[in-house]
Design brief:
The chain has about 475 residues and is of the alpha+beta class. Helices cover about 45% and strands about 25% of the residues. The protein folds into two domains: about 170 residues, no CATH class; about 180 residues, Pdz3 Domain (Roll). A hairpin with a 2-residue loop joins strand 16 and strand 17. The two termini are about 10 Å apart.
């Protein structure tokens, strides 16, 4: 374990600029957004805010505004908090109706001071203040995605199978080249990326698939993807479902072909291979491609009318599906806004599905990542460019908002549960019960964070 710690320190020092700084920057912005939601609504509800902190621990620098709020940046930039007037701590576990006077002695709040205390506000206002944090995270993500879609548009790949991996799930369940998948588990499929998203989260669970073949709508009620383990470039592994289809616009390398519809072409010249391939067009054929020591057989149905350039020699790659390659869908501002809502809903749904799979044991909890894994993703996004980093920030903001809505004491969702109970019974949950629940929730969150980060360390340096 000591060696692992030293390896992590070495990795951290070598990758600070590439991974740590982008992560800290994005996280600090999102924490500010989240806490500003609490702060803004608190001020609108007439609550005085004592502290607005980005980070925890020792204060590095800060200032006081005209309303008496201390704005500060602290040493550990992994979170933040807003402390309301009258609360004993930032988590609002307890309140105190006494304050320190100018003479240093404790005294009871005046009526005017009680008016600006958080605990003295109605349950509706307190709930609004708490809910504002997660809500603004979702709003921030929607605004960012709207800007991204307005500026860059969205990549659209037709949801058509250009090729099928022989022996893969799609082949086993009768999906054929040129089939257009239009629905999975009742969800409309508009682009190939929608298929990837649905299949990835499904793992090896059965799916209901509707597809169009030769103009006819067909239904396969039990398509089961293959579960595969994927390792990213950082060494983190995760499970995903794989259907075994290639996207429209994909092509196969003629040079790598070793078998074409049962004919051994491994020792043929490229010209001879091409002649064999062209002779097999306009029918469904098997093509084996070798890459290194591995080979994969694909089922394809190339059409001569779509391969005029290949046949004439203007290109050395045959077209597998003439549906079209990736296209960019442009959006009006309103269209981009609507698309951002749809994307947010997809991310929330996918996250909840993945967490549900971990809870039921379908997906391994080893895939639960901590700040190391998130930092690696942030670094990759930063290297990919501004748009990728903005998209990552939107994704992380959605997940931050969703996490805070979980009904766990110490999180915003836990406070909302207390307020819901208070609204029903007409009186607050007893302080003793709240303190016990919040303490338990804090231990649970701390344990979860420790587990997630130990997961990262083990996958990076031990497994």
């Amino acid at each position: 374990m000591v060696d692992t710690i030293f390896e992590f320190i070495s990795w951290f020092s070598q990758n600070t600029m590439e991974f740590v700084l982008p992560f800290v920057l994005v996280l600090s912005i999102l924490v500010f957004v989240h806490e500003f939601g609490h702060y803004y609504v608190a001020r609108k509800c007439g609550v005085r805010v004592d502290v607005f902190s980005i980070g925890f621990g020792k204060e590095l620098f800060g200032f006081n505004d005209k309303n008496g709020t201390r704005w500060k940046f602290c040493l550990v930039p992994l979170g933040g908090y807003v402390k309301m007037f009258g609360d004993v701590d930032p988590a609002s576990t307890r309140h105190d109706e006494t304050i320190e006077g100018d003479d240093g002695e404790r005294r009871t709040m005046t009526e005017a001071e009680r008016e600006v205390a958080f605990f003295n506000k109605s349950v509706g206002k307190r709930a609004a203040i708490v809910f504002a944090g997660p809500a603004i995270n979702f709003l921030f993500a929607i605004v960012v995605l709207t800007c991204v879609f307005s500026i860059q548009g969205k990549v659209i790949t037709p949801p058509v199978a250009a090729a099928i991996i022989k022996g893969g799930s799609a082949d086993n369940y009768g999906i054929q080249p040129h089939d257009r998948i239009v629905e999975i588990n009742g969800r409309a499929i508009e682009r190939f990326e929608d298929i990837q998203r649905q299949v990835t989260i499904a793992l090896d669970q059965g799916m209901s698939v509707r597809l169009v073949r030769d103009g006819k709508l067909m239904l396969n009620e039990s398509v089961r993807p293959e579960r595969v383990e994927v390792e990213d470039r950082h060494g983190f592994t995760h499970s995903r479902g794989m259907l075994g289809i290639m996207a429209a616009g994909a092509s196969l390398d003629l040079d790598g072909m070793v078998m074409i519809d049962g004919i051994d072409v491994s020792k043929m010249t490229e010209k001879q291979k091409k002649a064999v391939f062209v002779s097999k067009m306009d029918r469904q054929i098997d093509v084996e491609i070798k890459s290194g020591e591995n080979s994969t057989t694909y089922i394809i149905h190339p059409l001569s009318e779509q391969n005029a350039d290949f046949i004439k020699g203007d290109t050395d790659r045959p077209v597998l599906s003439g549906i079209g390659e990736n296209d960019i869908m442009a959006f009006s501002p309103l269209g981009a806004l609507i698309e951002s809502f749809k994307e947010t809903e997809e991310i929330v749904s996918g996250t909840l599905d993945a967490l549900g799979q971990m809870f039921t044991g379908v997906r391994s909890t080893k895939e639960l990542g901590g700040i190391i894994r998130i930092g690696a993703i942030a670094g990759d996004a930063a290297q990919a460019g501004t748009i990728a980093l903005l998209t990552f920030a939107a994704l992380l903001s959605i997940n931050l908002g969703l996490l805070n809505l979980f009904p766990i004491p110490v999180l915003d969702g836990g406070h909302l549960v207390f307020y819901a109970i208070e609204a029903v019974k007409g009186s607050p949950v007893p302080d003793r019960i709240q303190e016990y629940a919040l303490g338990t929730g804090m231990l649970a969150i701390a344990g979860l964070m420790l587990f997630a980060n130990v997961n990262d360390l083990f996958q990076l340096f031990i497994s």
